[in-house]
Design brief:
Order of helices and strands: HHHHHHHHH
Low-confidence stretches: 8-27
Radius of gyration: 27 Å
Mean pLDDT: 76
CATH topology of the largest domain: Rna Polymerase Sigma Factor, Chain: A
Strand content: under 5%
Number of helices: 9
Largest sheet: none
Length: 218
C-alpha cells in the first residue's frame, strides 16, 4: 500500500499518489463538523489498513482540517502547512496497519504525526538557513582573501580611494559595505536591494579591479 488514492474533491487538498511528487495545494475544508466518535474512526482506520480507498476518503474528510490546524500553528505559513498536511495524510495511509487502538485514539495518533512533521519542517528550514549563512560567511572570508587583506590595510590611502573611483557604482558600494562596515554578501545584497548572485559577481569583479589598480599580487 505505497500510494494513497487521490482525494481530489473540491475544497480540500488533492493527495498526489506518486512518492516524491510535489503536492498540488488546495484549500482545506473549514466547515468540517469534526471527526467521528473514537470507535468509528478506529473502524475506519482498520479498513484503511486493508486498502479501502473509500475509508481513506472518509478518514481524510474527518482529520485533514484538524491536522491542518495543528500544523499551521507551528509553521505560521499556509502553503507549507498544506504541504505538511498532505504528508501527514499520506503517512496515515501508509502506516494504517501500525495503528493500535489500545494505544490511543486515531485523532491523537494523527495529531502526534502532524506535530512531528511540522517540527521536522521547522528544523529542516532552520538547518538550511544555517548552512546558507555559514556558506556566505565562508565566501566572505575566503574569496580573494589575500587581496582583501591587503586592501583593508590600505583603505584610507589615496591610492585606494583613486582605485575605488575606478569601479562601477554597484561594485564600489558593495566593496565599501563589505570592507568598511564588515557586512556579509547577503547583508550587502539586502542593503543594496540587489540579488545575491549579482552582488557576488560584482564583489569578485571589483576586487580583481582593485588588485590590478593597486598592483597587489596573489
Amino acid at each position: 500500500m505505497d500510494s494513497p488514492p487521490p482525494a481530489g474533491r473540491p475544497g480540500r487538498l488533492r493527495l498526489v499518489p506518486t512518492r516524491g511528487a510535489r503536492p498540488v495545494n488546495r484549500p482545506v475544508p473549514v466547515d468540517n463538523p469534526g471527526p467521528p466518535p473514537r470507535h468509528e474512526l478506529a473502524d475506519v482506520m482498520r479498513k484503511v489498513a486493508q486498502g479501502d480507498q473509500q475509508a481513506f476518503s472518509t478518514l481524510y474528510d474527518a482529520l485533514a482540517p484538524m491536522v491542518f490546524g495543528l500544523v499551521v500553528r507551528v509553521l505560521r505559513d499556509r502553503a507549507q502547512s498544506e504541504e505538511v498536511t498532505q504528508e501527514v495524510m499520506i503517512d496515515l495511509w501508509r502506516q494504517a496497519a501500525r495503528y493500535e487502538p489500545t494505544a490511543g485514539s486515531v485523532t491523537t495518533w494523527a495529531a502526534t504525526i502532524a506535530h512531528r512533521r511540522a517540527v521536522d519542517r521547522v528544523r529542516s528550514a532552520q538547518a538550511a538557513a544555517d548552512r546558507e549563512h555559514a556558506q556566505a560567511a565562508r565566501e566572505h572570508t575566503t574569496a580573494y582573501d589575500e587581496v582583501a587583506e591587503q586592501v583593508e590595510t590600505r583603505l584610507e590611502s589615496e591610492q585606494v580611494r583613486r582605485c575605488l573611483r575606478g569601479l562601477t557604482e554597484l561594485q564600489r558600494q558593495a566593496v565599501t559595505l563589505a570592507y568598511y562596515r564588515g557586512l556579509t554578501y547577503r547583508e550587502v545584497a539586502q542593503t543594496l536591494h540587489t540579488p545575491l548572485p549579482t552582488i557576488k559577481t560584482r564583489m569578485r569583479d571589483g576586487l580583481i579591479r582593485l588588485r590590478d589598480c593597486m598592483g597587489v599580487t596573489t
